[in-house]
Amino acid sequence: MTSTSQPNALVTGAGRGLGLALARTLLAGGWRVVVDARRSAHLAAALPGAVVVSGDVTDPAHRDALAASVSRLDLLVNNASDLGPSPLPRLADAPLAAVRRVYETNVLAPLALTQLFLPLLRASHGTVLNVSSDAAVEAYAGWGAYGSSKAALDQLTAVLAAEEPELAVYAVDPGDMRTEMHQAAFPGEDISDRPEPEAVVPALLRLIATRPPSGRVRAADFAEASA
């Protein structure tokens, strides 16, 4: 990451949850932050100073609009995700159109954005942070579409790290959080015991700052290290 000027970040899926919490903290830390979200009317007030680009990461025209908003980049956070139908269906019943949408959002869009921004990331020796899940490595009934998409994202992350050794490239499992998406995975259940997304951000900042070897990491490990 460059250290002689203001660092620049792009955070997708920043309309709520972890993306919003991370973008807010980066802004407070002096970063220039570009964010995207499908629901963005609230972001001018929620993220004062951020560059907000409304749209869907699966849309090539939207990705081009993001590229037009960025001239330097130190950190790419592929956070935008699609859970799929709620309640979560078993694989036997999963609508293929919905599964395709999950893969478009969770796998193909991060790859497309990475391809788009690789020249800027190479120039800054930057960081790619792909938000993964424990569902990528554990078999949970109902999580077949989402979990397999995150497993694919993990493998893309690993290959990118091998191909781009000058970059720091991570698939990050943030752990369970009290988010709208997590609530959709457990409709009607009380998830108030899960931590707020803001509780995960310090671990992500430590990861970004310390730049350990590229690979799959758990945010919880960096939270413990910073305690």
Brief write-up:
By secondary structure, the chain is an alpha/beta fold. The chain contains eight helices and seven strands, in the order βαβαβαβαβαβααβα.
Structural write-up:
By secondary structure, this protein is an alpha/beta fold. It has one domain (8-226): NAD(P)-binding Rossmann-like Domain (Rossmann fold). 43% of the residues lie in helices and 15% in strands. The protein has eight helices and seven strands; from the N terminus they run βαβαβαβαβαβααβα. It has helices spanning 17-28, 43-46, 60-68, 96-124, 144-163, 180-185, 201-210, 219-226; strands at residues 8-11, 32-37, 51-54, 75-78, 127-131, 168-173, 215-218. A seven-stranded parallel β-sheet has the order 3-2-1-4-5-6-7, with helices on both faces. Strand 2 (32-37), helix 2 (43-46) and strand 3 form a beta-alpha-beta unit. Helix 4 (96-124) packs parallel to helix 5 (144-163) and helix 7 (201-210) crosses helix 8. The longest helix is centred in the middle third of the chain and has 29 residues, at 96-124. It is globular, with a radius of gyration of 17 Å.
List the keywords:
8 helices; 7 strands; Rossmann fold; alpha/beta; seven-stranded parallel β-sheet; single chain
Work out the radius of gyration. 17 Å
Strand content: 5-15%
Total strands: the figure is: 7
Instruction: Give the fraction of residues assigned to helices.
Output: 40-55%
Main CATH class: Alpha Beta
Structural topology:
Layout: E1 8-11, H1 17-28, E2 32-37, H2 43-46, E3 51-54, H3 60-68, E4 75-78, H4 96-124, E5 127-131, H5 144-163, E6 168-173, H6 180-185, H7 201-210, E7 215-218, H8 219-226
Parallel strand pairs: 1-2, 1-4, 2-3, 4-5, 5-6, 6-7
Helix pairs in contact: 4-5, 7-8
